[in-house]
Amino acid sequence: MKKEATFKWDDKEFIEFYRNSANVIMLERQRCIEILIQVLSLHFPNLTGLSILDLGCGDGEISSNIIKQSNSCNFTLLDASEEMLSKAKERLGNSSIVYTHMSFEDYFEKNSEDSKYDIVVSANAIHHLDYIGKSEIFTQIYKELKLGGAFVNIDPVEPPSSYSEKIQFGIWKNSMNETIKKTGRNEEVGKYDHIPSKYKNNLENKPSGLWDQLKALEQSGFRDVDCFYKYSIFVVYGGFKF
Asked: Half-sphere exposure (CA, 13 Å, Cβ side) for 236?
């Protein structure tokens, strides 16, 4: 099947669509964020005074939820989309937050510093890198984490087979429509049925298998690597630096 053209992440119309529909098209989005924060809170019982890097921050959803738990951490929010960063600034303001308009690769090349962060988080961003790119980013994240640091990622992963993909995409479609019904918008049932195939055929999306990514984390030095949650293709996984 022919791949489609990539989305433009500074396109205001697309960004508004993404922000308005994210809780539908990204399955269990809020639940995934809750689990990410639970992992961090269990690892750092006193979730204060920490330095946090939010990779591919988008409009600041992850950092916003961490701030609700503790407003005394120092954040660096990184995104390649200037428009997304502006939305994050509108949402979070400027207190203890550094906003950086840059790609992952450029950021780590130009700002590399070992043992810089306590926490690195990311959501729906790293799947835009191929497997080699993911492995390189995992290695760089490990280097920049302080001893005792944590990395947690929310992302879609590649199903292990075409049949598994059929099943998981079916779950994806059904769950989107269930979410729509629960919010009383029955007239929108079926509106997002095209999203799984559109995701698959978008050149920007380069998902890797879950187990391959867990192995890559271990090879980068992370310990206690695990998948903390999975629903259809959407997962929460990560590891720790000990």
From this structure: 20
Alpha-carbon span 120 to 75, nearest angstrom: 10
Number of H helices, E strands in the chain: 9, 7
Angle of CA points 165, 190, 3, to nearest 5°: 45
pLDDT tens string 210-223: 999 999 999 999 99
pTM (2 d.p.): 0.94
Q: Please, what is the Cα angle at 46 between 41 and 47, to 5 degrees?
A: 60
Cα(97)–Cα(107) distance, integer angstroms? 16
Per the CB < 8 A criterion, the answer to whether 80 and 101 are in contact is: yes
28: left (phi over 0), alpha (psi -120 to 50) or beta: left
